[in-house]
User: Fold these one by one.
Assistant:
Number 1:
Amino acid sequence: MSSPNALAAAAVASTSGVGWLRQRRWTIIRIASPVVLLLLWQFGSALGVIPQDVLPAPSLIADAGVELIRNGQLVDALGVSGWRVIQGLALGGSIGIGLGIAVGLSHWFEATVDPPMQMLRALPHLGLIPLFIIWFGIGELPKVLLVALGVSFPLYLNTFSAIRQVDPKLFETAQVLGFSFWQRLRTIIIPSAAPQVLVGLRQSLAIAWLTLIVAEQINASSGIGFLINNARDFLRIDIIIFGLVVYALLGITTDAIVRAFERRALRYRS
């Protein structure tokens, strides 16, 4: 007869096997669903159900992408748009995290800084485009500042909230041990606030690409938005849709990078 331990181990193995098969099934479904959608789209275009002048077939959009890659326009546009996002994220992230730390640690800063920040957060930052053009011209600066403005608020709110949720007993222990401010920041505040700040970073990246889509539509002479605008003038719907797909892929890719960093940085929580 089998021992109880052997039976228990077999039951656990069976359950884990069923769970793995179920997870694999849902993964296959998640991958297959967009593929089926693309096939239906292509099939509908081939039958003439979907007009080509309204929504080109996926094969035509892919051909447009190959055309942009071969003539080098896509690579140049990616470099320009990526640099704008990096600059805006660095500037807005520094401001958002810096103010979030200050407000989270000081009630005086909360009373003086948080009300103006909440008022600015309530403004639709894309509605400030006309003012930014008047103030800063039509060059790179207004585009970078718009991205910075958009990304600063999620990081500010998440940093502020994360610091306020740190266990007060940890601060009491640090005070008893005579920790300096920088020691508390390095050993208590940053590790405790990191998960929520990384969530804010993911939100900020999504807002950065969304802001850039709009900013590059106005008085741009380079970047993915310029390609889309140029394609609109020549009624190249295939290039317009391809440009939007590139924006979406950039957003997904940067989010995946942050998630991978999050899993590595917070592996101690597993």
Number 2:
Amino acid sequence: MTSRIEIQDLDFVIEGKQVLHRLSLSLSERRIGVVGRNGSGKSTLARLVAGLTAPTAGKIRINGHDLAKDRRRALQEVGILFQNPEHQIIFPTVGEEIAFGLEQQGYGKAEAASATASVLERFNLGHWKQTYVNTLSQGQKHLVCLMSVVAMAPRLLVLDEPFAGLDIPTKAQLNRYLRLYQGSLLHITHDPSDLAGYEHLIWLDQGRVQLAGPQAEVMSVYQEAMHIQGKADDLAHLSG
């Protein structure tokens, strides 16, 4: 189950600052990575793809749909995981959190409860249903967000630095779950190891596509450029 992402002459401006400049991409790979330095527009692109905000100019279509104009369709087409799970989780228990998204899609309470139990069992976490989210570790909260999105079965899952700040074992466990995901992934990350096995890579720089293509080719050029910049930069001039 792959998704089609069509971006044409996309601009995004906020508070007078142009964050993205004339982006044009046509993507249909199942595993797509996005890399770039802080301030390059990666998170803005994630929100645009998910339909959480509309472009200032240009067009973006996910499987033929303008998700910023059709929020119900957006719930079917795209799920998103943010860097901080606290920005996503709104209910006290794991079961309630998972069921909420399903109810937003139109499930009745009984149907949502059944689907929630099914997802928890798929992750071998049936005993988590009544668990209070505030008792969980950061990595476990990320897993709750992932299960909530998986339950809604979107065709595309957008990952906006969801592993930042997690230790190596926790990242490995979450990556293992992601490998089981049947839809498409658009993964924004600073860590090249997160993109092992990905087919396509987009390198954003100052709001523009610096390079896009097969992961291995783009990654080697990107890493070389980052090493060169790391030697030349003064920390006082690094973008925030």
Number 3:
Amino acid sequence: MARLAVRREVAGHLQVDYDVSERRACQATGFGRSSERYRKRSDPQVALRMRLKELAAARLRYGYRRLQILSRREGWEVDHKRTYGLYRDEGLSIRPKLPERRRAWRCCQ
């Protein structure tokens, strides 16, 4: 089974070289017309994802709720559900506090 990009190129080649319709080219190759017409959409939230990662890296103890507030202050139109989804997709999490090392005090004798 050929990859989709290759099949799309073959169907386009048939259309141009043999002057056949898209329907006939797709039928000859066994390639669906909806797959032929499909164009990948870019993720419109790439900039927001990058900004959330920057904020999370700068503020290690902030969770998604606080990052949502900060991003809204910067002018992003984002609600808590989208922030949570992006936060989870990027694998971000609150870094736990490290326990303080207690010193053993010795009494002077």
Number 4:
Amino acid sequence: MTDGTTDLQALAAEAYIYGYPMVRNLDEVDRLARKGMGSVPPAPANEFSHGSRPADAATPAAGADHDTLCSIAHLDLSGGALLLTVPDTGGRYYVLQFVDAWTNNFAYVGHRATGTGEASYLLTPPGWDEEVPPGATRISVPTDAALIVGRWACAGPDDVAAVRALQEDTLLEPYWTATEEPRGLPTHTYISDDEPALLFYEKLRIRMAAFPPAPAEATYQQRFAPLGLLDAESPYTHPESDLAGALREGLAEGKAKVEQAASEEAAEGLNGGRPGDHAHDYNADYFEVGTLKDPQWICSDRDSAHLLRAASAHTALWGMHGYETEYARARTDAEGLSPAGGRS
């Protein structure tokens, strides 16, 4: 392998670590819309889909457990702002977690963050500059595609009906100034499933263009130009052999690094603290309602944050910050094996 191809492979591995969270996140969003997840039925964009029984392993939301019901809404703000109304829960714990296309947790609404009274929130897309209606609180959404992942405390089967009533009173509707139909997730150029590496980088290329990150990250993305990730047209349908080889090897290398980091986080905790406590501290750019802009909860080194974000997407997609919840994790399995596969 030539030095140039070796450099491309290293760059492809870096791009995999950087882009894996968004690619997996939006793949799951697409699956939610088409097939649903566990007890959460399929639903179109900008509509809540409510689970009618405790979340299970089919729902990738980290922290899904046996004492909550789950609600999920895929947001598409390309057509304009949305108005969110939440009911008075009478002190019952709930949280609506807001996740952008890059898996950044950028807002929380609920018991800890905003209380349990009735409230309205205007969810606005990037570049929105209109007035917020009286009585509503604005939440600026960093990317046109985003998620709300809701968790509602449920004391058991006899409590399900009460929770379901609260879910049904949680409403999303287009704000009256919204004048366009949402565009939906961008469609990428067809790449065969037999070429998973090329398909991954094609998804990343089209989604990077559709959902720009924070300005600091946009500058960072320029380094991926030699891979074709900034090209307006897909370079992956008939790539040159050196590029194709570098992408295949780079994906394998990046995937191995993500899996290793995920194992280390599960076993020992990354970024300090217990496993899981700081697994979602990679957002350093967007702090809306309910988030804590505190150095304790921000991984300031962006390279480390990219790896942390990828590891979290791999094992705990849609997981919340440690200040909203604590995740109990076993250091070994029933056979005494650690998450990395060895005995501790």
